[in-house]
Amino acid sequence: MRRIAAALAFLPMSALAETPMTGDEFDAYMTGKTLTFSANGLPYGIEYYAPSRRVIWSFIDGDCVMGEWYEADGAICFVYENDPEPKCWEVFRDPGGIRAEFLDGPGASVIYEVEESEPLICDNMGA
After folding, report:
1. What UniProt keywords are attached to this protein's entry (predicted)?
2. Domain-embedded: residue 78
3. Domain presence at residue 100
């Protein structure tokens, strides 16, 4: 037991904190919120997290798309009505909110929670 504690003492704290959120943790944190995200310091999009793992996503252009999310192999995956191909992310809690690292494409895409937003206004849905 002492060896394990001693070994853990030499790990950087960030290595211990880098456990992706589970589906239940993600659900508890996100449900009922509308969050704005950024990528590379620029606005990326806004998403509303409804009950029952439903979402409404909008890039900054105001056009919205309905979808849902689910947990798969330690990742949080999204499918949208206009694109049934899953988009999977590892999601982490950071001091300023969440950080999501895209898993399904070339290059490393990372988005960050910027703020909790006002409700979505969807130009294409009459909402």
Report:
1. Signal
2. yes
3. yes
CB 85 within 8 A of CB 94: no
Token couple for 35: 């969050």
pLDDT above 50 for 91? yes
Query: What are the tens digits of pLDDT across the range 17-41?
Result: 589 999 999 999 999 999 999 998 8
List the CATH number of the domain containing 48.
2.40.128.490
Q: Which domain holds residue 101?
A: 19-116
Which value, to the nearest 10 degrees, does the dihedral of the CA atoms of residues 82, 102, 36, 126 take?
A: 0
Entry field: residues in the chain: 127
| Contact partners, residue 99, CB within 8 Å, separation at least 6 | 91, 92, 110, 111, 112, 113
Task: Name 5's Cβ contacts closer than 8 Å, sequence gap at least 6.
Answer: none
Inside any domain, residue 55: yes
Mean pLDDT score, 52-67: 93
Distance CA 101, CA 99 (A): 7
Percent of the chain with pLDDT over 90: 64
